[in-house]
Amino acid sequence: MSSSSDRTPSNPRTTRIFDSLAVLQQEAADAFCAAVEETLENKDRFCVSLSGGSTPKGLYQQLASRDLPWDRIHWFWGDERNVPHDDADSNTKMVREALLQPASVPEQNVHPVEVNVEDPASAAMKYEQTLRGFFPEQPFPAWDLVLLGMGDDAHTASLFPETAALSEDERWFVENWVEKFEGYRYTLSPPAINSGERIWFLISGESKREALKNVWSGERNTDQFPSQLIYPTRWYLTQDVAS
Ligand code: 6PG
Questions:
Q1: Which tens digits make up the pLDDT trace of 91-135?
Q2: Which is the closest atom of ligand 1 to the Cα of 54?
Q3: Relative to the CA of 51, which ligand 1 atom is closest?
């Protein structure tokens, strides 16, 4: 696994390009299972931070049919929308339906953000306490894996361009006002993503091509291209976004 020292926003050595999203999701599911097996050789649990959005959904659906040590994997969310868990926009709802329910994942292994629509700041602080309880004595969460997507505006998690969370370097998990939604999101801060042992971007769709080009080879402008703040260990891309 690459060390953080040789991580750069664009690291061609760790980029894999696929002809289709389905193949990308299949390969990512294979890699997920391998990462779990490798981790559990010398740790008692595997902690993963999940991405929302449509790209990883097929990965989650693939995982539901794999033979995984479900009692030793703990599922967290890297970001969440400020909506109840039964709302169509909820990342918790999407993951529950795609993976957690079909695989009958033990409830004690599932750690959703307890959204508080009226008081997002307290919900973010509460989730940070949950994370700190899982990773005591750590400067930031010691994820075994962080899964990330990227939007066509180069956001990742809920680190959107020109938002306050981009400059958060102490808190692990924050509420983040996003003007274009006229609402709050919840997100891991950049250092709380970069602390992952494995950090994988899964990106698909021609609409992301320009954003990826800016993240990889544009000027360094993290306010405009927030994904530049992240130092991933792997990029899983479909051909339409990589070309
Ligand atoms: C979210 C995600 C977000 C997502 C990107 C890409 O809550 O929406 O965490 O960062 O990964 O918006 O979404 P798609 O995979 O649907 O393109």
A1: 999 999 999 999 999 999 999 999 999 999 999 999 999 999 999
A2: 16
A3: 9
- Domain positions in the chain: 16-242
For residue 157 and ligand 1, the question of a CB distance below 6 A is answered with: yes
Residue in the structure block whose two tokens are 């320009």: 210
pLDDT the model gives residue 224: 98
CATH number belonging to the domain at 16-242, selected among 1.20.1260.100, 3.90.78.10, 3.40.50.1360, 3.30.70.260: 3.40.50.1360
Q: Phi first, then psi: what are they for 224, rounded to 5°? A: -90, -35
**What average pLDDT is seen over the chain?**
95
Nearest CA to ligand 1 atom 7: 52
Nearest CA to ligand 1 atom 3: 157
